[in-house]
Amino acid sequence: MSSTPTSYTDLTQTVSSHLATLRQDIPDVMKGFSELARAATRDGALDKKTKELIAIALGVAAHCDACIGFHVQALVKLGTSKAELEEALAMAIYMGGGPSLMYSANAMAAYAEFTAAAPAA
C-alpha cells in the first residue's frame, strides 16, 4: 500500500529543485523533455484538461507520487472538478486494480491540498 506524502506542495517543490540540477547538468535532455511536454499538452483535438486527466491516470497507474503532485496541481489550475478527477481515477482503478486504487487515494489527497491552497475564483 502506498503512503501519502506529508505534503504534495512540499513534494513538488523538492522535486522541482532537483530537476533544476538536471537542467544544469543535462540541459539537452531536459530541453528535449520540456519541448515534448509542451507539444503533448498543447490544446488540439483534446483540450489541455483532458490531456492532464489522462496524465493523472497514467501517473496513478505508474505509482508515481511526484507525477500525481504535478498533474493534480495542473488540474486544479485548469479548474478541474472533483467529479472529473474521480472519473479519470475510476479508469485508472479499472485498468490498474488495487495498487491504482491506493494511488488514487493519494491523488484525492493532493486534490484536497491544492484546492485548499488555490486562490478563490
TrEMBL record:
It comes from the Bacteria. Residues 27-109 form the Carboxymuconolactone decarboxylase-like domain. InterPro entries: AhpD-like, AhpD_core, CMD-like. This is Carboxymuconolactone decarboxylase family protein. It comes from Janthinobacterium fluminis.
